[in-house]
Specification:
Elements lengths: L1 E6 L7 H16 L5 E3 L12 H4 L1 E2 L3 H13 L3 E8 L7 E7 L5 E5 L9 H4 L8 E4 L2 E7 L6 H7 L5 E6 L6 H15 L2 E6 L1 E4 L2 E4 L3 E3 L5 E4 L6 E6 L2 H10 L9
Parallel strand pairs: 1-2, 2-4, 3-4, 8-9, 9-10
Antiparallel strand pairs: 1-15, 4-5, 5-6, 7-8, 10-13, 11-12, 13-14
Length: 254
């Protein structure tokens, strides 16, 4: 499986400008013919708590953008959106996977970042999401989820690749890089972390997007602070080989 992560800037709370800026980056990512293109958390707004302003229906402009781009490129695309559902006033931070046939799958962020009052403005999800791309099982998480290892452990037996999209601040970049590596090593799986760059609401983001293999080695890493397309290969057979050679998951307490 080939994955393409788009490490991009986000114009604060301006969906149309972000659609305009991200569209050519998606086209660039598509040139490598990946099986999945990955955008960042809240790619169309930034990590905003102004949910009364930015909240939209699940089939609103941000999801429609993903669907249209997936149809145009012929490649599934994911990113998260502030989506309202089930008649609630608070949106979920929804990771949406849009397919070229206009279908979508979604995962609502489980662990909300109370340090930034995300829990006051968004609703947490309860379910996980694992999908198959080119014979590779991919499980999806959003930003702060990365700090909660048990959710990753629970999905390890059926996961070859974890995708983590984020708006992770530069001040904690070391945590971001360390935790991505830890999740890969402890679950003997690939981890693809795609983080934004630039600044939003006074917070700096350095990106540091990367793909880690099941032994904790960097496959490919983006430069800090730059808009880049990160392309890497993931092999489910490598995951199987590592788990067979080092059957550590069998010793995990249930």
């Amino acid at each position: 499986m080939k994955v393409a992560g788009v490490q991009h800037d986000i114009v604060w709370e301006d969906k149309e400008k972000n659609f305009t800026n991200i569209r050519p980056l998606i086209s660039q990512a598509a040139e490598s013919s990946p099986d999945l293109i990955i955008l960042t958390e809240l790619f169309s707004t930034g990590f905003s708590m102004s949910t009364e302003m930015i909240g939209e229906d699940i089939d609103g402009p941000s999801t429609s953008f993903l669907v249209n781009e997936a149809e145009k490129t012929g490649i599934p695309i994911c990113g998260s959106v502030p989506a309202l559902a089930d008649g609630h006033k608070k949106p979920h931070n929804y990771l949406v996977v849009a397919y070229p046939d206009n279908s979508v799958e979604s995962y609502a962020k489980k662990h909300l970042f109370s340090f930034a009052k995300e829990d006051n403005h968004y609703r947490p999800g309860q379910e996980t999401l694992t999908l198959n791309f080119a014979g590779t099982a991919v499980s999806f998480f959003i930003c702060f989820d990365l700090r909660f290892a048990p959710d990753f452990w629970d999905l390890a037996p059926k996961t070859d690749l974890y995708v983590v999209i984020a708006n992770w601040p530069e001040t904690r970049a070391h945590h971001w890089k360390s935790l991505l590596t830890a999740r890969a090593i402890e679950n003997q799986a690939y981890v693809m972390g795609v983080n934004r760059v630039g600044s939003g609401d006074g917070i700096r983001y350095s990106g540091d997007s990367r793909l880690i293999d099941p032994l904790g080695t960097e496959v490919v890493a983006a430069n800090s602070g730059l808009t880049e397309i990160l392309v890497g290969e993931v092999s489910s057979s490598v995951v199987s080989e590592v788990r067979s050679q080092y059957p550590f998951l069998n010793d995990r307490s249930q």
